[in-house]
Amino acid sequence: MNLFGMMEVSASALGAERVRAEVVISNLANAESTRTPDGGPYHRREVVFSAQRPSFALSLASAGAATQDAGSAGVRLRGIVTDPAPPVMKYDPTHPDANADGYVAYPNINPVSEMADLLGAARAYEMNVSAIGAAKQMIQQSLEILK
Hints:
By secondary structure, the protein is an alpha+beta fold. It has one domain. The protein contains three helices and four strands. It has helices at 3-29, 56-61, 111-146, and strands at 45-52, 74-82, 88-91, 103-106. The strands form two sheets. Strands 1-2 form a two-stranded antiparallel ribbon.
């Protein structure tokens, strides 16, 4: 993989971590949402990623070429899925969304684990920004050597 390929991988990871952070923020913002347009409480969402590797044929084709891209490599967003965990039932008969027994269904969201996930996304974002900076610096130094 050439330096531009490394930047492509880091750029795809930046986009993936941005989506991850947005989903975590949405989860935190809706941690107390007992009613959604679909009915019932908000359900926690999670982001699913996969590694996108270049095909074997493209890798072979670019093995000897420094300027040719080895195919599309990086992080791919596979989707955003809903957590199947059941809601947390809390007794509050005065709440407008309470059922006949006085229980209210709240989203099954743990703010501590969501904050840890948000911190992980922020750290991964920072590392990929650093990787792009390092690749840029290597390209600049290569150009200086060619002068």
